Amino acid sequence: MSKVAEKVADSLYRKDYISEEEKEIYSYGYEILIDNIGKTFLLLMVGAIIHQFVATLVFVVVFTTLRSYCGGYHASKTWQCNLLTVILWGIVIVGTYTEAIIKQCEALTIAIAVVSELVIYQCAPVEHQNKKLTNEKKRGTEDVH
Length: 145
Fold this sequence. Notes:
Layout: H1 2-14, H2 23-49, H3 53-70, H4 78-97, H5 99-104, H6 106-123, H7 135-144
């Protein structure tokens, strides 16, 4: 992935779309983009194979939206991030297979959902050394809490 990203950045540099100083930034950005597109494609394919395409699509949309607005855990290695994403997806898919159990424990399911929302409301957005929060976002969270 990194070699493909570097080639794309080099191509942009040779065509004078970006400066030499920007090559590393573009290469990193393309590497992340390629990784995320690949991960999404693979999740959707596996979801389709196990007849859980809709659940997988909902997971990808919700997970991506939550991460983009709330921040979250940032793994130090790409494989750790990918593994955590697959584990979370797996939990969602297992949850779809245990629908009968969840229906029997409806009160527990609602309680878990409410607690989850409260945790997100209280903790989001999450600041990380690689994703600093702007003063505006910090002020916005202070006003809410």
